[in-house]
């Protein structure tokens, strides 16, 4: 699903950013451009990011420090 319509960021884009090592909202924004214009998508983007980090932690318990 599209999270940020301004720049066309999807939930998959955010998940890929987390898979590539992004562990903060700032890192996700830098990697995807999400919430860089109007900012209305920031809340949804953060939720998608948190869920993706939780999924990463479930697969690799050594990432517990990330959240």
Automatic annotation (TrEMBL):
<dbReference type="InterPro" id="IPR041854">
    <property type="entry name" value="BFD-like_2Fe2S-bd_dom_sf"/>
</dbReference>
<keyword id="KW-0408">Iron</keyword>
<keyword id="KW-0249">Electron transport</keyword>
<dbReference type="GO" id="GO:0051537">
    <property type="term" value="F:2 iron, 2 sulfur cluster binding"/>
</dbReference>
<keyword id="KW-0001">2Fe-2S</keyword>
<dbReference type="InterPro" id="IPR007419">
    <property type="entry name" value="BFD-like_2Fe2S-bd_dom"/>
</dbReference>
<dbReference type="Pfam" id="PF04324">
    <property type="entry name" value="Fer2_BFD"/>
</dbReference>
<dbReference type="GO" id="GO:0046872">
    <property type="term" value="F:metal ion binding"/>
</dbReference>
<keyword id="KW-0813">Transport</keyword>
<keyword id="KW-0479">Metal-binding</keyword>
<dbReference type="InterPro" id="IPR052371">
    <property type="entry name" value="BFD-associated_ferredoxin"/>
</dbReference>
<feature type="domain" description="BFD-like [2Fe-2S]-binding">
    <location>
        <begin position="2"/>
        <end position="45"/>
    </location>
</feature>
<protein>
    <recommendedName>
        <fullName>Bacterioferritin-associated ferredoxin</fullName>
    </recommendedName>
</protein>
<keyword id="KW-0411">Iron-sulfur</keyword>
<comment type="similarity">
    <text>Belongs to the Bfd family.</text>
</comment>
